[in-house]
Amino acid sequence: MATYCLTVARLQLVLGHGARRFHVAAALNAKAKVAMSRFEPNSSINYDKLRSNIDIVRKRLNRPLTLSEKIVYGHLDDPAGQEIVRGRTYLRLRPDRVAMQDATAQMAMLQFISSGLPKVAVPSTIHCDHLIEAQTGGAQDLQRAKEINQEVYNFLASAGAKYGVGFWKPGSGIIHQIILENYAYPGVMLIGTDSHTPNGGGLGCICIGVGGADAVDVMAGIPWELKCPNVIGVKLTGTLSGWTSPKDVILKVAGILTVKGGTGAIVEYHGPGVDSISCTGMATICNMGAEIGATTSVFPYNHRMRTYLEKTGRGEIAAVANENQDLLVPDSGCHYDQIVEINLSELKPHINGPFTPDLAHPVSDIGSVAEKNGWPLDVKVGLIGSCTNSSYEDMGRAASLAKQALDKGLKCKAQFTVTPGSEQIRATIERDGYAKMLRDVGGVVLANACGPCIGQWDRRDVKKGEKNTIVTSFNRNFTARNDANPATHAFVTSPEIVTALSIAGTLKFNPETDFLTAPNGEKFKLLPPTGDELPARDFDPGQDTYQHPPADGTGLRVDVNPQSNRLQLLEPFDKWNGKDLEDLQVLIKVKGKCTTDHISAAGPWLKFRGHLDNISNNLLIGAVNIENDAVNKIRNILTGEFGGVPDVARYYKKHNISWVVVGDENYGEGSSREHAALEPRHLGGRAIIVKSFARIHETNLKKQGLLPLTFSNPADYDKICPDDKISIVGLKSFAPGKPLKAIIKHSDGSSETIELNHTFNETQIEWFQAGSALNRMKELQKLV
Questions:
Q1: Which neighbouring-strand residues pair with 512?
Q2: Residue 377 belongs to some domain of the structure
């Protein structure tokens, strides 16, 4: 401390006593650089650059800035010249790093290989978490995954080594937990190839989910584009207590804003209530912000984040964040486009579902609501963990309930599974006895991986089509997502409520008021859960599962077997031919909700994520065809026969017939998986016309050379018949802000013209004209 004060005094002599404090902090930061992570000692945190950019933008805009604006605008490629209008202009940004999970990293790395570049330009990592199927238990499931996925893991490890990407081996944990423990820090901008990347907002970061092509841009050192987000402020007052948990905050927000209410916006939490939430609790809230369509979510830097950084071995980062705290909180008087207020002292435990994460119910009401709607009351399986809720605090609070039940001689009536978020969490809860309590109450501890949350679950207790209820601490509960059974009613809630309902075995149990019966007939209530925010002792890191890339990987090879059914090198998509798109056949007119799970299913299909042709066999197999209310059953206009969506698409492609998909609201919500854009492009699609898009999917479609278009009049959706042909005209004068026309040709010979809107900017139009963003990148490389 004495050295610090002496240095400050000397700096003030040079700068003058009138110099503002942050000039001193900036000079100190320049003097002693702090590494971004312990794995990247040569990459330093640059708060000086962040501050400089923020100062430039603040002077230009002449107004207070939200925290979201500070971090986003602080990463502008050209802060002096960039046009900045919320909700309208496209920003060119320089993110600090990239993270990729193994299912999306395959395609991202295949695209990076196609770019011809020798090494990534920013720190980047690959995380093996998506390909481990839950069957019997952690160790056995992990070993089986290593054997089944050896080819893919070897590809990702060798590609990482060659191109300078860190590699987290299977068993390391879920990408978002690894990021929080090792790479996230206040003020960082990170993009990740997973829709729940916003988890990092719990540590004061702007972390945004993207498709693989966006990741390639950043890894290539190209400015990354993002439409300037609006900012929704969520003001928190009061204090969390009792059965209410951080998860209930986002469950409540989802009920208010719905699955598309956050589209095009960053959700920024603020207010005195923030300090009652742990850092990992804030991460939970930001994680599930993906379910309201938000670009990302973020919390202001505070003492809870500082403590978490220190406890995870990053005290130096905490110290430099403290010195720059004015950058890491919103300016007083800043403006939010919308404000939601939640009093945490009044907030009750919530449970959302089934089939959509924004159908919110107080836990006290869910039993009666379920009875009224005919939802199964018996809880078949309770599942805690996932990237949303697998912290030390989450596990401790669940274990406190397990101990109460065990002390009374009770075990779970429902099946019960536990997914640790990382190897560090697994090792620490084993050491501290939480895992044993959860096992003793009937739980099965699964591998440190995504598992059932993303459909990697070999579930055998119910038959497909059998109505049943499961409760999870996951983030997403779309039809058939967890177990491939469309009749499963999945509800999302906190780990505490999942544990309580698993012990009781029914949705009719309200732990705040209802009694359980011990084997000896004693009636008792569960006391509210308790748990330490962080372990009293340091975290146990567990096994070392990280592979650092060599300093020079140019001599290494990355081999892809041409006969592989898991991996396939990419061929460039065809360029636009300079003409309007004439007579596109409607492949399918989708009815209702169509998420990326409907467009490109996960679960057993994850094994083909590195093989575009094979993964394309799941194209839109979950979407409902408006013609017959069936899934994966559409009419082949050429033959008159019905077939699967990918089969008909392939038939059309073979006969040189381009096609179009017509969809409803918020098309493509959910996962960031760019396969939902690659597959229609690969099988001959040219345009997707809908009432509205989810943000990530719309961008992914543009990246692959498709036309994502929206009805100027949403009622025009009703004008299109499943057997129509559609011509999209005006492409020769395709320009930002200028609508296109669609001529709908009906089978009876009549036609009508409608207007279609788009959000393309000039750069994105170049992607379309080149055939894809990757094609355009290669064109620009030839010009250098």
A1: none
A2: yes
